[in-house]
Amino acid sequence: MPHYLIAILILLAPLDTPRADAAAKGLALMQEADARDRGWVDARAELDMVLRNRQGQESRRRLRIDSLEVDGDGDKSLTVFDSPRDIKGTAFLSFTHALTADEQWLFLPALKRVKRIASANKSGPFVGSEFAYEDITSQEVAKYTYHYVRDDRLGERAVFVIEAYPAYANSGYTREIIWLDQHMYQPLKVEYFDRKNAPLKVLKLSHYQQYLARYWRPGRMHMQNLQNGKSTELTWKNYRFQVGLDSRDFDQNTLKRMR
User: Fold this and answer.
1) What is the reported pTM?
2) 146: which residues sit within 8 A by CB, 6+ positions away?
3) Within a 10 A sphere around the Cβ of 138, how many other Cβ atoms?
């Protein structure tokens, strides 16, 4: 065979096929997880938040979250703090988008004003917790690229291990490693790596329950910061779905009316 034909065949040959296959499989698994979680329409839940410092000292907060599913885009959510007194009435509104920057606003009752969260600040801590602003928005598939790593087990659960790389600007992470339950197609554990690719945080999700015979939701989420020794635990309760929320319940005027 002439040398020039050999050169053309080499150029046309697929490069790094195993890696391309791993990317395609990782994406397919996350798309399946997303498809299984569609159609819940709207939801309401209550949470207890426990913040612990390196010494184990605790502070507690109570809050509630309303969520609205948006066809063709990310979800909308409204979070309101009910206690303690110094942050009561603080409200956080988030419009998640798949391909463009999320929109987020924070209402501070002491100042009686709405503050927009800049895109560059998405990696900052959410109201002093170990969850960042980017952690508490809906995790849209299109916001990441993926790499399937392996099948594994986490305790007694069979999982897919998948790496996710943020494709949006101003993320505080270079990558995440997700342990995705093979039955529920929900995460059981997520490891976060900072902008220097050093281990930063570990999120563990447990006490899952199924709602409407389809949708799995965790009862507990524990975020451990590996660098500063602090942690935040969320305990979810009183999940309710399809309670009649619509887009009018998720605007900046709603922020100011929350009590």
Assistant:
1) 0.89
2) 23, 26, 27, 29, 30, 162, 163, 164, 165
3) 21
Q: Within 13 Å and on the Cβ side, how many CA atoms surround 82?
A: 9
Flag whether 1 is in a domain: no
User: What tokens appear for 188 in the block?
Assistant: 């059981």
Residue 4: inside a domain: no
The pLDDT profile of the chain, 259 residues, written as one tens digit per residue, is: 555 554 444 444 455 667 889 999 999 999 999 999 999 999 999 999 999 999 999 999 999 999 999 988 889 999 999 999 999 999 999 999 877 888 999 998 888 888 898 877 788 899 899 999 999 888 899 999 999 999 999 999 999 999 999 998 889 999 999 999 999 999 999 999 999 999 999 999 999 999 999 999 999 999 999 999 999 999 999 999 999 999 999 988 777 676 5
- In sign, the C-alpha dihedral spanning 210, 215, 219, 224 is positive
Q: Can you give the CATH number for the domain in which 177 is found? A: 2.50.20.10
166: Cα within 13 Å, side-chain hemisphere: 21
- The parent domain of residue 244 ranges over 17-257
Our count of domains for the chain comes to: 1
What is the C-alpha to C-alpha distance for residues 137 and 239, in angstroms, rounded to an integer? Answer: 17
Does 27 map to a domain? yes
The CA-based diameter of the chain, rounded to the nearest angstrom, is 81
